[in-house]
Design goal:
Elements (H helix, E strand, L loop, with lengths): L12 H14 L12 H8 L3 H13 L3 E4 L3 E4 L5 H18 L4 H11 L1
Antiparallel strand pairs: 1-2
Length: 115
């Protein structure tokens, strides 16, 4: 499993690590039922601290993609659902926009301008 992070990316490293693992699962590098390498090995591959990888793995477990089993490591449960992930991010973006006084219509306009 080839994992790399972009040091120019402004997102936190644990989010980048979670995205890299999510992408590996979606691309079929690891399949449901497969075990992931130990967190230390993943951290070495990504050149980050093991705690960063553990945080990413916990995030993916919360999404229902991974299962942690004592003595058996981390197992892939299912492939990510891209629509569900995008809808979740859209809800987060909308909440952030509302906190800053913007509306859904503002977001739609900005997205259309980027298309």
């Amino acid at each position: 499993m080839l994992l790399s992070l972009d040091l120019e990316d402004e997102r936190p490293l644990h989010e980048q690590a979670a995205d890299a693992i999510r992408r590996a699962i979606a691309d079929g590098e690891v399949e449901p039922g497969d075990r992931l390498p130990p967190a230390r090995d993943l951290a070495d591959a990504m050149r980050v601290n093991a705690n960063t990888v553990l945080r990413a793995l916990r995030e993916l477990r919360a999404e229902g993609l991974l299962e942690f089993r004592r003595g058996r490591g981390v197992t892939v449960l299912r492939k990510p659902d891209p629509e569900a992930a995008l809808r979740s991010r859209a809800r987060e973006l909308l909440a952030e926009a509302h906190r800053h006084g913007y509306t859904a219509a503002d977001l739609v306009r900005w997205i259309e301008e980027e298309s």
